[in-house]
Amino acid sequence: MKLLLQAVKLIDPRSKYHLDHIDILIEAGIITQIAKKIKALPEYKVFKEKALVSPSWIDTNMHIYEPGLEYREDFKSGLKAAAAGGFGLVCIMPNTNPPVDNNAQLAFIKQAAQHALTEVYPYGAVSHKIEGKDLAEIYDMHEGGPIAFTDGSKAISNAGLLERALLYVKKFKGVILNNPDNRDLSEGAQMNEGINSTVLGMQGAPKLAEELMVSRDLFLLEESQSRLHFINVSTQKSVALIKAAKAKGLAVSAGVNVANLFFDDDELLDYDTNFKVHPHLRNKEDIKALLSGLKDGTIDVICSGHKPLHEDEKKVEFENASFGMSTIDCAFAVSHTATSKVLNEEVLIDKWLKGYELIGLPIPKIEVGERADLSIFNFDEKATFQQKDILSKGKNNPFVGRDLTGTVYGIVKGNKTNIL
Fold first, then answer.
1. Within a domain: residue 382?
2. Which of 10, 91, 258, 264 lies most in the core, judged by the most C-beta atoms within 10 Å?
3. Do residues 290 and 260 lie in contact, with contact meaning Cβ atoms separated by under 8 Å?
4. Is 33 among the domain residues?
5. What range does the domain containing 352 cover?
6. pLDDT tens digit string along 159-207?
7. Model's pTM, two decimal places?
8. C-beta separation of 55 from 374 below 8 A
9. Is 252 a domain residue?
10. What residues have CB less than 8 Å from 112, skipping those under 6 apart?
11. CA atoms within 13 A on the CB side of 35
């Protein structure tokens, strides 16, 4: 394929063409020319929308439930939705059935996803069967590729297990990801503890459940001098704790889900189960702190937090509904809409690229001779997100009917694209 991108604006501070309007010619998957104007030959496929181009984005928090739970999301549907959402690489949580806790499971995922447009980075589980008791086969899995390990949506509650894992991955400069939630404090909770949980008569989870685990994990990190990433944080105090830890020089990083930037717990007043998520939707002060954390670098990455569920898991009484929100299809537009008053557009794109550093991969280069690995988008176009825009199997997406700013045209990955 010979693909010519005409008059696109490049967003890539690493490139000498940063913020320039340029033409990019891609032949057989390789960038062969970058110039102000490239003549379009008859054999070229030409893309000439008013668009921006950046290195392809990475999502560091996505669930695809193959094998075992494909009724929620399989690789075909999940990766098609991710590509439409502008993501060239997605990091997949290990919460499948069976869990990804050995090399055989890693090999299955790589085989199942090998022909998709969006590439997959599978996290390995920290504990055997994600039961939180014994270490999984971390070193064997590392030899198969991953340097990042997590129990995904399950918090690593056992402090001894987390400490051993931190020390173990230190041998190969790996990283442990944790979902901070002290279940001793949050067990049975349906939403954030506060005025709204009292009004609704629901059991609430105190913010302390997250903050206590963040604090514990940071103590263990300081002791081990390893690397730790908080998958998703949601409270003002969590941000402050992480900021202080970074100031001390600890190798800690953090992410935030798009839902926690966009929604507060007022949304639950109508008992809409699509807003039943984890981490819980907090209040406006917490959102303000999360945005400040993004701006000052305390929070390193924005992630989709994509957790697709079957309608039978959502269209039930609130207390019986499963936690999760389907977001990958609209995550970019949500992030732009939520952060536009705080982050400039270059910083926003950087938050969708920082994940490469987390998993030890270089950010794709937009240079002549490099493999094409691009996200193509527009910051300005406004649209109402609609049900038809959801390509994921998971229809538990509360952004339907919301006005969002930002359009994704698609991605280019080598010799494959979905923009034409």
1. no
2. 258
3. yes
4. no
5. 56-358
6. 999 999 999 999 999 999 999 999 999 999 999 999 999 999 999 999 9
7. 0.95
8. yes
9. yes
10. 66, 75
11. 9
Token digits of residue 356: 């490469």
Residue 77: CATH number of its domain: 3.20.20.140
pLDDT in tens, 222-254: 999 999 999 999 999 999 999 999 999 999 999
Could you tell me if residue 372 is inside a domain? no
SS (H, E, C) the chain: CEEEEEEEEECCCCCCCCCCEEEEEEECCEEEEEECCCCCCCCCEEECCCCEEEECEEEEEECCCCCCCCCCCCHHHHHHHHHHCCEEEEEECCCCCCCCCCHHHHHHHHHHHCCCCCEEEECECCEHHHCCCCECCHHHHHHCCCCEEECCCCCCCCHHHHHHHHHHHHCCCCEEEECCCCHHHHCCCCEECCHHHHHHCCCEECHHHHHHHHHHHHHHHHHHCCCEEECCCCCHHHHHHHHHHHHCCCCEEEEEEHHHHHCCHHHHHHCCHHHCCCCCCCCHHHHHHHHHHHHHCCCCEEECCECCCCHHHCCCCHHHCCCCCCCCCCHHHHHHHHHCCCCCHHHHHHHCCCHHHHCCCCCCCCCCCCECEEEEEEEEEEEECCHHHCCCCCCCCCCCCCEEEEEEEEEEECCEECCC
